[in-house]
Amino acid sequence: MTAENEREIYHKLEAMKEIRNKTITLERLKRSILNEVRSGDQEGRCLAQYKREMELLQQEKMSHVEELRQIHADINAMETVIKQTEESMGRKLTNASRLHEDYRPLKAEVDMLRRQCLGLDRLPDLHEEEGSPITPDRFPASVRGSGVGGGAGGVGGAGLPTGVGGAGGAAFLPPAPRKPPPPPAFRSALQQDFITVSLRQQPPPMKSCLSCHQQIHRNAPICPLCKAKSRSRNPKKPKKK
């Protein structure tokens, strides 16, 4: 074997060694690539599941937001009905008080005429009638007014002759009593009801949530419906020093 053949064999051995090392590195890289591709495909499948779950969560969120929107709409409608009912109740109580101011002296006069001219008993008060929704304390002054009129009628009736007619008896009647002022307690209760209704009529300052577009309080830092942070569209500018 000549020296030239030895050098050729040596170069082939060196080439085989280099090929072996690079082949091992190549196989290692190939396995790494396959592992990364398999992991990437697995992550892709997981990502698709995560996105699907996110879509379901968004749908559930919107369904709850729609339910909350409907609940808030029902609450607003009920508040409107309550406000209108309170206003109607206040008007009815005011009208009842005004009508009772006219009713009370007229009833006292009628009771006086019945006793003095006809010898009849007084008419029953409003709370004494059968099936009446009026309680004795609804118009406190009516009981006192009827009692005063009844006492005067009883005294006057005893001194009149029996044969005196309606026209003759009317000539001896005292002048009609003046209309007494309304009871202060009833007036105060009505004024308190009107103040309460007027305060309830003023809605709180509201703004729209940028996430779910629901009406929330203007100073709320977090939306109570979607839990998103509420940011002011017109933030305050810092003061210049």
Automatic annotation (TrEMBL):
Superkingdom field: Eukaryota
GO cellular component: nucleus
Stated name of the protein: Zinc finger C4H2 domain-containing protein
Location of the C4H2-type domain: 201-241
InterPro entries per record: ZF_C4H2 (IPR044069), Znf-C4H2 (IPR018482)
GO BP annotations listed: positive regulation of neuron differentiation
